[in-house]
Specification:
Elements: H1 2-54, H2 56-63, E1 64-72, E2 75-78, H3 80-88, E3 95-105, E4 111-124, E5 127-141, E6 147-151
Parallel strand pairs: 1-6
Antiparallel strand pairs: 1-2, 3-4, 4-5, 5-6
Helix pairs in contact: 1-2, 2-3
Length: 152
């Protein structure tokens, strides 16, 4: 009987401890996620503005992580040097605008992703080309606190 009373008290104390601390842990994760989402959306907006102001290639190089992967059609460009070569061969007058419709972040706030719509116009083989579609970008927080894309 004594053992049963001890076990009941121990069980209820542990249950109470779990119930009291769980919301605190969940709140802390939500705060980190919320902060990361806001930072990612602000980075995405600055990235788009730079593409408009300084050129698409310059913006992609500025916001790419060193180990970034960029996927275009059926080709994959791995690393900043490959991304630079991709943009070096394209028309410098390309126009690309986009806006993230959604952002999400990991619980610890060091990774995230965005998606939304983009509009592109440029000249290829002497003809004007336009495109409208959906983009997806994966972001990673850098050691200096900035955000860089790792997959686009």
């Amino acid at each position: 009987m004594i053992k049963t009373k001890f076990m009941k008290r121990y069980f209820f104390k542990m249950l109470l401890l779990i119930c009291v601390t769980s919301p605190v842990c969940l709140w802390a994760q939500t705060a980190a996620e919320t902060k990361a989402k806001q930072e990612i959306l602000a980075t995405e907006a600055a990235f788009c503005k730079m593409a408009k102001d300084k050129g698409v290639g310059a913006a992609f190089l500025a916001y790419a992580a060193d180990d970034a992967v960029m996927i275009r059609g059926t080709k994959t460009y791995k690393g900043k040097e490959a991304i630079k070569k991709y943009f070096d061969r394209n028309d410098k007058s390309d126009q690309l605008t986009w806006k993230a419709d959604y952002a999400s972040a990991s619980a610890d706030g060091d990774m995230g992703y965005t998606y939304g719509e983009y509009d592109f116009s440029g000249v290829r083989a002497g003809s004007t080309m336009t495109d409208h579609g959906i983009f997806r970008t994966v972001w990673r927080k850098q050691k200096d606190g900035s955000w860089k894309f790792v997959i686009d």
